Amino acid sequence: MTSVKWKRFEELVKKVQEELAPDAVVKLDDKIIGQETGTIRQIDISVRQSIGNYDILVAIDCKDYSRPVDVKDIEAFIGMIQDIHANKGVVVSASGFTKTAKRRGEKVGLNLYRLVDTGDHDWQVMAYIPIVCKFIGPQKYSFAFSGNIEIVDFPFNEPQSLTIYNTNDCELGTIYDIMKKNWNDNQYPIEAGKYDNLELTKGVTKIKSNNRYQELNIKLNLIVESRLYFGELPIQKLSGFKDELTGKTISRGFTTEIIDVLNVQNNWERINSIKDLAVEPMFILEAGDIL
């Protein structure tokens, strides 16, 4: 790679364009004869692709300026586009565009882009996407017991610790263990609300008291809570162009950092409703709490 900064910028733009259009022929520092002037015109990057019976030519002008591109640069590029009869003109800037440059470029149909790349180079950007994480989990629970039984050693202080058995008198675990397994296996509703008389096990349930197995009906009453958190998730890898006229980013894909659940719950903003946000989230991620 060359040591000249503006040339490295052109090479990076070429690389991004090749990723966006892998079937096209992308050439750096192309020379094209002007149809109107008959002179050789230098094009920073040319993109050629055949679509049906048509050969499409896109000319890309790269501006590694420390200031926004102004209308004079746009006017000069428009003249070159018209001279070489390009089907499309694109200007990629390192520092954006002035308002008049945007207005002029939009009027003639130019694409005005800003380079967006998270790689390790002079134009590296830090990118984030707005995310809402929705966690669903039990907030409160209780148990309802019924049956004609005699329980000598019932754990009134901690009923969830009561051990239950199946019809073959085989131990199934404590009530809490079974509730936990059922929740983690998605056997209970995951929408926020109050749910009564949920099943713990299929079939007859038994307990052991005074060395005797006795049948007991156990139902679960569950209150499910929904918790919303809003935050910005860092993008680890992204390569593309931001359209300065629409605000949209054009890319073949991106890779985010790993979502740390504890970080979300401790550091992200707790919100009551997505409607309260000033920024529309790009994604809404839903996850059920693991008990």
Textual characterization of the structure:
- With 291 residues, the chain is α+β, with helices and mostly antiparallel strands.
- It has 2 domains: 5-117, Trna Endonuclease, Chain: A, domain 1; 127-234 and 259-291, no CATH class.
- It is built from 5 helices and 15 strands.
- The protein has helices at 5-20, 71-84, 99-107, 175-184, 261-267; strands at 25-33, 40-51, 54-63, 88-93, 111-117, 127-146, 163-165, 171-174, 193-199, 206-209, 212-215, 217-243, 249-256, 269-271, 283-288.
- Strands 1, 2, 3, 4, 5, 6, 9, 12, 13, 14 and 15 form an 11-stranded mixed sheet that branches. Strands 8-7-10-11 form a 4-stranded antiparallel sheet.
- The longest helix is centred in the first third of the chain and has 16 residues, at 5-20.
- The protein is rod-shaped and about 105 Å long.
- The relative contact order is 0.15.
